[in-house]
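Can't paste images in this forum, so I'm doing it all in text. The chain is below; anyone willing to post the predicted structure tokens underneath?
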Amino acid sequence: PAAIPAFAEANARRFKGFDAPAANIACVEAATRLPFDEGIAFEQQEFMKLMFGAQSAAQRHIFFAERQAGKIDGIGDDVKPRPIRKVGMIGAGTMGGGISMNFLSAGIPVTIIEMGEEPLKRGLGIMQKNYEATAARGGIPSDAPAKRMGLITGAVGLESVKDADLIIEAVFETMDIKKEVFTKLDQFAKPGAVLASNTSYLDVNKIAAVTKRPQDVLGMHFFSPANVMKLCEIVRGEKTAPDALMTAVNIVKRIAKVPVVVGVCDGFVGNRMLGARTKQSEKFLFEGALPQQVDAVVTKFGMPMGPFAMGDLAGLDIGWRSRKDRGVKSEIADALCEAGRFGQKTGKGYYKYEAGSRSPLPDPEVEKLIDETLAKLGLKRRQIEDQEILERMVYPMINEGARILEEKIAARPSDIDVVWLYGYGWPIYRGGPMFYADQVGLKHVAERLSFYAKQTNDPSLEPAPLLKRLADEGKTFASLAKG
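Text version of the structure:
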């Protein structure tokens, strides 16, 4: 019997949030103390609870949602994908290298292109190390690194894309740079090649407009780290040809990723919804919450990281530079950066980090900095309950999801759920933001959004027209898929 709690403790992190492992462990434990018939009855009772429980419904929803996401509205069975025998990758940095690894792992040759020998050599070296580390852990056969790296060709200069069937650009997230790359690609790419941008925010239509072949242009937004994360948002431009879109969906499946077709808007589906959450997390600091309280609520809900720990991981200086470029201020985040607190890379950000550790530790200096900033702004901290934090972290995302559906950026609510599951680590046992909203009840979600809109003087929190209509009619997001 002593082995049972030891097993539960050893696997606590893996099983966190899930009902089924706890039920399984309870059944094994019951078998050590109950007569056979009573033990079987206990197992039946636990099984029935799970089968009719919310977590079972959530996971069944995701099973079908993932398969539905691969279907493209408005494209018939007569449309066939273009053959992809070779891929051209523009950029050997973190994203370019990570994306390339997916194709190499699937046995598809890649030409990876940089503007100089040094960044090319560095990028190829990182890919080699990543493969070798995976092989050392037993994740791939020992001869796999050599075989996979044997499929890649390094090159300097865009003219090397000439024999690629699919070309993916993974350069800096700046419109001018991307336009420059696509203008040159138009000269070198062979006719019929699919031209994809790995942009996470930018307007694919504007990128396509600099080419003479907008019908071949689309977005393929991989998520970081690209060799690990399963999601690829495939961005359908207004002139993207049906067979080009079908080609992107098909190739994403071939490399064992999950494709979701989305429309053109700032941030597409995932980052647009993340923006709604980020806005609220920043506001909480001005109202009285501390980073560790907000993050604790989000991780207890089941997300792998809270917004502030995620900011530290990404680097706070990135957002700081972006705010400066746009002439935008965020007094607390700016003050952290001005103090040299850029996150994990400097050992301190919203949290402090001990040498060699990535574990975030609450820092009294951050609380002091927040208090000083609020004093300058004439603001007072208030006590904020965890339930408010949870609702303001999740419900504005649901609201933005409703707007995305209204604008037809996503074809169906379940597509949004797939994006959040595979792109952001939404817990599978909660089924995705739109499924979760249906479980909570759209009437409740709409009422709480209206309440917070008034409480925080933020009109953007008012329920989206689609959410309000469905709530008033007593319907769900799932009802949209049923017509």
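The mean pLDDT is 95. The chain has 23 helices and eight strands.
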